[in-house]
C-alpha cells in the first residue's frame, strides 16, 4: 500500500507545555483519513508540520513523495489546504479572491470554480469580510477544490457550519474524491461526521497518536460486553480490556478493543458468563480509547 | 502571480496612495509659489533659504509613503497569522520578493505625481539668474528615499511583534544610555555618534538629510 503522507519519529515542541513526540502516521493513497482528537491534542500543529508551515525539531515527513518542509512549494502546488480559522483576505471580493488564488496554481479549473460558485450560491461581488461563516466555509472549500489537488488537507472544515452548509460542503468533497481518486486528510472532533465519510482513522491525544487503523476495524473492534461472574483480575485476555464497571446483580460492563466472535471462549474458560455484546459507535469508541490512553492500566 | 499580488496591494493602499500622490504633486507647486519675485529684485540666496523650510516635507513624504506601503504589504497576512501566505506553493523568499516588488512599484505613483508637479512648477516659474530647476532629480531622489524607507519598514513589519519589540527596545536602550551618560556628565555622545553614522555619507539614510529643493544653483 502506498502512502500519500508518511511521518516518522516526529518531534516538535512549542513552549513549555506542548510537544508532539514520536509521532508516526501513514495516510494511504486514495483514502479519506479522519484525524480525530480532543481540542488541544495537536491536530492542527501536526497538519501545519505536515504542510511545512512549521518546522519539526526532528523526524521525517514525506507528503506526495516530497520531503517536508524542504520540498514544500512542489508539494503545496498539489495540495489543497483549508485551515481551522478563515485565513483569506477579507477586503477582497469573492471574484478577487478566486483570481488571486488561481494565480498560484497551474492546475486551477475555472470551469469547475464557476460551477461550484453556482451550486454554493456565492455572489462574486460579495466582500469576504461580509460573508457569513457558512459562505466563508464554502468559499474555502471551493478554492481548494478548483485547484484540482491530489491531496486535500482539511482542518475542521465544517466546524460551526449549519447542517445544510455542512452537507453541501461534504457532498462537493465526496464528488471530487470519487472523480479524482484524491487523498483526503480531514481533522475534526465531529466524530459522527467522520464515521460517515472516512475509511481510515487516526486518533491523537496530548501530542501522541493513540491509534491508526481502518475505520471498519475501529468500529467493529470496540465492543461493550455485559459479563456475569466476571473474574477479578481479568487475567490474560485475548482482547484489550479498555474499562470495566460494576453493575447490578453482579453483572459488569466491559469495554474491549480487538474483539472477535471466537473470543467468547475466554469467558467460558474463566467461569464467567457473557450476556451481551454491543457494537459501539465511533464516538463511544473514541471516548473509551482516550480514557484508556489517559489512565494507563497495569 | 506578480499581477495578483500587485492587485491586492493596490486595493489595500489605493486611498492612501491617492492622498500621497496629491501631496507629492502639490509640494513642488507650493515650492514654486515661494519663488514669486519680490517686486524690487531677485535675492537668490534669500529664496533658497525660504525654500529650505518646505524642503523638510519631501523626505517626510517619502518616509510616509514607504511606511504606508510597507505596512499595507503585510497587514492582511498578519491578520491571518501568515497561514495563507505560507500555504501557497512558492518559496518564502519568493513571496517576500513579490510583496516587496509590488510595494516598490506602487511607490512609483507618488514619485510620478511629484515629477509631474515639479515639471509644471519648473515651467511656470521664472527663475532668477543662477538658479535652475531639477524636477527629474527631485522625483528620482524622492523615489529612492521612498524605496529605502519602504525596505526598512518592510523588514520590520515582516517580522513578528516580538521583532518590532526588539527594534524598539534597542532604540530605548540607546536613549536610556544617552540619558545616563548625560547624568554622569561624561563626554560621550552615543546617540549623536550613531545618528552620524546613519545619516552622514556613507550612512544608509544619508538621502533623507541635506537640501531637498526643486530649485538650486
Describe this structure in words.
The complex is a heterodimer of chains A (298) and B (217). Chain A has two domains: 3-87 and 134-206, P-loop containing nucleotide triphosphate hydrolases (Rossmann fold, 3-Layer(aba) Sandwich), CATH 3.40.50.300; 218-294, Alpha-Beta Plaits, CATH 3.30.70. Helix content of chain A is 33%, strand content 31%. Chain A is built from ten helices and 14 strands. In chain A, strands 6-7-8-3-9-10 form a six-stranded mixed β-sheet, sandwiched between helices. In chain A, a hairpin with a 2-residue loop joins strand 9 (200-205) and strand 10. In chain A, helix 4 (110-119) runs antiparallel to helix 5 (133-146) and helix 5 (133-146) packs parallel to helix 6. Chain B has 217 residues and is mainly alpha-helical. Chain B contains eight helices and two strands. Chain B has helices spanning 2-34, 44-55, 57-79, 83-87, 92-124, 135-158, 161-183, 190-199; strands at residues 132-133, 215-216. The chains are: A alpha/beta (298), B mainly alpha (217). The interface between A and B is medium-sized, with 26 and 21 residues.
Task: Tell me the layout of helices and strands.
The complex is a heterodimer of chains A (298) and B (217).
Chain A (H helix, E strand, L loop, with lengths): L2 E12 L3 E11 L3 E5 L6 H8 L7 E6 L2 E3 L3 H5 L2 E4 L11 H9 L7 H10 L13 H14 L4 E5 L7 H18 L2 E6 L2 H7 L2 E6 L2 E7 H7 E7 L11 E7 L4 E7 L6 H6 L3 E7 L2 H13 L4
Parallel strand pairs in A: 3-8, 3-9, 6-7, 7-8
Antiparallel strand pairs in A: 1-2, 1-4, 4-5, 9-10, 11-13, 11-14, 12-13
Helix pairs in contact in A: 4-5, 5-6
Chain B lengths: L1 H33 L9 H12 L1 H23 L3 H5 L4 H33 L7 E2 L1 H24 L2 H23 L6 H10 L15 E2 L1
Antiparallel strand pairs in B: 1-2
Amino acid at each position: 500500500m502506498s502512502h500519500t503522507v508518511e511521518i516518522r519519529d516526529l518531534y516538535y515542541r512549542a513552549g513549555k507545555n506542548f510537544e508532539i513526540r514520536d509521532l508516526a502516521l501513514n495516510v494511504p493513497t486514495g483514502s479519506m483519513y479522519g484525524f480525530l482528537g480532543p481540542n488541544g491534542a495537536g491536530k492542527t500543529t501536526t497538519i501545519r508540520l505536515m504542510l511545512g508551515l512549521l518546522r519539526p525539531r526532528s523526524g521525517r515527513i514525506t507528503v506526495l513523495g516530497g520531503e517536508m518542509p524542504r520540498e514544500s512549494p512542489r508539494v503545496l502546488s498539489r495540495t489543497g489546504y483549508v485551515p481551522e480559522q478563515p485565513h483569506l483576505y477579507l477586503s477582497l471580493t469573492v471574484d478577487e479572491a478566486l483570481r488571486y488564488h488561481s494565480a498560484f496554481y497551474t492546475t486551477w479549473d475555472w470551469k469547475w470554480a464557476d460551477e461550484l460558485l453556482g451550486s454554493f450560491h456565492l455572489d462574486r461581488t460579495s466582500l469576504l469580510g461580509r460573508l457569513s461563516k457558512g459562505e466563508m466555509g464554502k468559499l474555502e472549500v471551493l478554492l481548494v477544490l478548483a485547484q484540482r489537488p491530489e491531496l486535500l488537507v482539511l482542518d475542521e472544515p465544517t466546524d460551526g457550519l449549519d447542517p445544510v452548509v455542512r452537507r453541501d460542503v461534504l457532498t462537493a468533497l465526496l464528488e471530487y474524491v470519487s472523480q479524482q481518486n484524491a487523498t483526503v486528510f480531514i481533522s475534526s472532533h465531529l466524530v459522527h461526521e467522520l464515521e460517515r465519510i472516512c475509511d481510515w482513522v487516526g486518533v491523537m491525544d496530548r501530542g501522541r497518536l493513540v491509534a491508526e487503523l481502518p475505520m471498519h476495524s475501529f468500529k467493529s473492534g470496540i465492543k461493550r460486553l455485559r459479563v456475569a461472574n466476571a473474574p477479578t483480575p481479568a487475567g490474560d485476555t485475548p482482547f484489550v480490556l479498555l474499562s470495566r464497571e460494576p453493575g447490578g446483580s453482579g453483572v459488569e460492563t466491559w469495554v474491549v478493543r480487538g474483539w472477535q466472535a471466537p473470543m467468547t471462549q475466554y469467558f467460558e474458560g474463566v467461569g464467567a458468563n457473557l450476556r451481551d455484546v454491543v457494537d459501539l459507535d465511533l464516538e463511544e469508541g473514541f471516548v473509551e480509547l482516550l480514557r484508556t490512553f489517559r489512565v494507563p492500566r497495569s | 502571480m506578480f499581477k495578483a499580488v500587485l492587485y491586492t496591494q493596490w486595493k489595500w493602499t489605493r486611498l492612501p496612495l491617492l492622498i500621497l500622490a496629491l501631496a507629492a504633486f502639490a509640494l513642488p507647486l507650493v515650492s514654486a509659489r515661494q519663488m514669486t519675485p519680490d517686486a524690487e529684485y531677485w535675492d537668490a540666496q534669500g529664496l533658497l533659504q525660504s525654500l529650505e523650510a518646505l524642503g523638510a516635507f519631501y523626505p517626510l513624504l517619502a518616509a510616509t509613503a514607504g511606511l504606508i506601503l510597507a505596512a499595507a504589504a503585510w497587514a492582511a497576512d498578519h491578520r491571518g497569522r501568515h497561514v495563507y501566505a505560507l500555504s501557497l506553493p512558492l518559496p518564502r523568499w519568493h513571496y517576500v520578493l513579490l510583496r516587496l516588488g509590488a510595494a516598490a512599484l506602487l511607490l512609483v505613483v507618488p514619485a510620478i505625481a511629484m515629477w509631474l508637479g515639479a515639471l509644471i512648477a519648473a515651467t511656470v516659474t521664472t527663475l532668477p539668474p543662477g538658479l535652475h530647476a531639477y524636477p527629474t532629480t527631485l522625483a528620482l531622489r524622492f523615489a529612492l528615499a521612498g524605496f529605502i524607507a519602504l525596505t526598512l519598514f518592510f523588514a520590520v513589519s515582516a517580522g513578528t511583534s516580538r521583532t518590532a519589540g526588539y527594534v524598539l527596545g534597542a532604540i530605548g536602550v540607546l536613549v536610556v544610555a544617552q540619558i545616563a551618560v548625560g547624568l554622569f556628565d561624561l563626554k560621550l555622545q552615543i546617540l549623536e555618534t550613531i545618528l552620524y553614522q546613519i545619516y552622514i555619507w556613507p550612512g544608509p539614510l544619508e538621502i533623507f538629510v541635506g537640501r531637498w529643493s526643486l530649485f538650486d544653483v
